[in-house]
Amino acid sequence: MPACVAVNSNQLVEALNSSWVGVAVDGYPLWWDPNLEKKIARCAKNNTLLAFTFAIGKPQLPFS
Asked: Which residues contact 40 (CB under 8 A, 6 or more apart)?
Protein backbone atom coordinates (compact mmCIF):
# COMPACT_ATOMS: atom_id res chain seq x y z
CA MET A 1 0.00 0.00 0.00
CA PRO A 2 2.89 2.38 -0.46
CA ALA A 3 1.18 4.46 -3.16
CA CYS A 4 -1.41 5.70 -0.67
CA VAL A 5 -2.57 5.10 2.86
CA ALA A 6 -4.25 1.82 3.68
CA VAL A 7 -7.69 3.38 3.95
CA ASN A 8 -7.62 4.45 0.29
CA SER A 9 -5.75 1.61 -1.40
CA ASN A 10 -8.73 -0.72 -1.84
CA GLN A 11 -10.85 2.11 -3.22
CA LEU A 12 -8.14 3.11 -5.68
CA VAL A 13 -7.52 -0.43 -6.92
CA GLU A 14 -11.24 -1.15 -7.26
CA ALA A 15 -11.80 2.10 -9.18
CA LEU A 16 -9.00 1.31 -11.62
CA ASN A 17 -10.47 -2.17 -12.19
CA SER A 18 -7.36 -3.60 -13.86
CA SER A 19 -5.74 -6.98 -13.45
CA TRP A 20 -2.40 -5.13 -13.64
CA VAL A 21 -3.09 -3.13 -10.46
CA GLY A 22 -3.30 -4.46 -6.91
CA VAL A 23 -2.40 -3.92 -3.29
CA ALA A 24 0.98 -4.70 -1.72
CA VAL A 25 0.72 -4.73 2.07
CA ASP A 26 3.74 -3.99 4.21
CA GLY A 27 2.48 -4.97 7.64
CA TYR A 28 5.33 -3.39 9.60
CA PRO A 29 4.23 0.26 9.20
CA LEU A 30 0.54 -0.69 9.35
CA TRP A 31 0.45 -2.84 12.50
CA TRP A 32 -1.29 -0.08 14.46
CA ASP A 33 -4.34 0.03 12.17
CA PRO A 34 -7.29 -1.57 14.03
CA ASN A 35 -9.04 -2.26 10.69
CA LEU A 36 -6.04 -3.81 8.94
CA GLU A 37 -7.48 -7.33 9.07
CA LYS A 38 -10.70 -6.15 7.39
CA LYS A 39 -8.74 -4.27 4.72
CA ILE A 40 -6.60 -7.31 3.93
CA ALA A 41 -9.72 -9.51 3.83
CA ARG A 42 -11.27 -7.06 1.34
CA CYS A 43 -8.20 -7.43 -0.88
CA ALA A 44 -8.44 -11.21 -0.69
CA LYS A 45 -12.15 -11.19 -1.46
CA ASN A 46 -11.59 -9.00 -4.53
CA ASN A 47 -8.46 -10.92 -5.56
CA THR A 48 -6.38 -7.73 -5.48
CA LEU A 49 -3.81 -8.68 -2.83
CA LEU A 50 -0.57 -8.96 -4.83
CA ALA A 51 2.03 -9.03 -2.06
CA PHE A 52 2.25 -9.18 1.73
CA THR A 53 5.29 -8.70 3.90
CA PHE A 54 5.74 -8.36 7.62
CA ALA A 55 9.02 -7.79 9.43
CA ILE A 56 9.42 -8.30 13.16
CA GLY A 57 11.98 -5.77 14.25
CA LYS A 58 15.50 -5.08 13.09
CA PRO A 59 17.78 -8.08 12.62
CA GLN A 60 21.09 -8.07 14.47
CA LEU A 61 23.86 -8.05 11.88
CA PRO A 62 27.28 -9.42 12.83
CA PHE A 63 29.01 -6.20 11.78
CA SER A 64 26.68 -3.69 13.46
From this structure: 25, 49, 52
